[in-house]
Amino acid sequence: MVAMPARLTSTTTTTTTNSRCIKSPSSLVSSITSLLKTLNPQNPDPSPLNQFSPHLSSKLVIKVINNNQTNPNHALLFFNWASNPNPNPNNYSHTHKCYIAITDLLLSHGLFSKATHLLQSSDKFSDFTVSKLIKAHGERRQIKLAIHLFNQVKEREMGRCLFSCNAILGVLVKANRVNLARTIFDEIVKEGVVNLDVAIYTTMIRGLCKIGLIEDAEKLLDEMSCKPNLFTYTTLVDGFCKKGLMESALSLVTRMMESKDCMPNTVTYNTLIHGYCKKGELDEAKKCFDEMVSRNCKPNTITYTTLMNAYCKKGELDEAKKCLDEMVIQNCEPNTVTYSTLIDGYCKKGELDEAKKYFDEMVSRNCKPDIVTYTTLIEGYCKKGELDEAKKCLDEMVSRNGEPNAVTNNTLIDGYCKKGELDEAKKYFDEMVSPDTVPYTTLIDEYRKRSDETKKYLDEMLSRICKPNSDMYMTDRFYIFKTFIDGIGRKAN
Fold this sequence. Notes:
Elements: H1 6-21, H2 25-36, H3 58-67, H4 72-83, H5 96-108, H6 112-121, H7 127-139, H8 143-156, H9 162-174, H10 178-191, H11 198-210, H12 214-223, H13 230-242, H14 246-259, H15 266-278, H16 282-294, H17 301-313, H18 317-329, H19 336-348, H20 352-364, H21 371-383, H22 387-399, H23 406-418, H24 422-431, H25 437-447, H26 451-463, H27 470-474, H28 476-492
């Protein structure tokens, strides 16, 4: 028997011992992740990973990839090593799910070229994987690249690219390139290679509705080569509602119910209710709500908030309040938008005590006010001239880590100007990083009584990128004021 060299014997023993010591999957993942952190992905020496070869499996590889979400290059290093491990006692090879896991990770970090190269070099440039690349480029608004990838995979797969078809149509519709999506869709139908599924039809119906071609969308529904599903019907219902065609929307919902296969759900009824509310037809909206409940279709926060918003706009605050009370009784949790809607309703009616009451209730229910909530209250106080209360609201908003936006500052500037407190107004103006034309207009309107200050603010306004807006120029008041400024300039010369 030939004696094994002492050094090799020691290494083999150590490797075997290490691999035997690590038993549980979680321990393996942790050990591999810790080791990866010590390796340089730019100039890798993956040999230290060889000790884990006996434990390789697709489940382990996917867990290591998912455990390195913040380190995609380390995950890729491990993936590449596992593609050809040495030794490979179990004859391990990556599964389709492994390629999906690493592709998803690379794309989530914007490493598009690495993901594309990996798939191409591994001969995994398939319809399904390319659909992921198309969606990722679409998210970055890289439409040309998305189309290029689609054309590549379409040629490679000889037109059999259902997933990529879905992806490119979705990307184009989302990017408002509906006409281009329609052209591609028509080509796919004409070629007859892809068996169109319900997702493709639904995407195109959504696109046609988006650009107002509601009749074409309805026609496409009738021409579908497969059965519409709930999403298809609800998409078209939404299209009808946005065009104000409530009879057509209701007729389609009736058709859904008659089919027995696609009963309207909460989203469908919410769409109808919103459509009626948008047209000011609250009685019809309430009928929809009642029918929804009678069919054991549970209203959600969106349902109640939509009704509350409509009641508030009509000044029917008692009805809006009833909606909130019913929500609580039905264990449907009001959210920030719900309370902000009611607070806005009371502020517009000048009932600030009620508005503050619901603000306090909102906070007590651990429902966090946002900048819209605070700005609504601030505007309410400013309109009533209660600027101290408005200032308190602002201070509370800032203390809760909420920074005022242009609307908040414009509201305060307007409030202080109307009370003649121009120094306070100027303070908020100066705090604005890039004020729009509204505070300029407000300040100039007040400062026109002080010629030097007026010219200063107009000059400052015009010296910045922001130009006086068209509304400001369109008023007779501004023309008179501009003449006044020009007169000052001529006198100075």
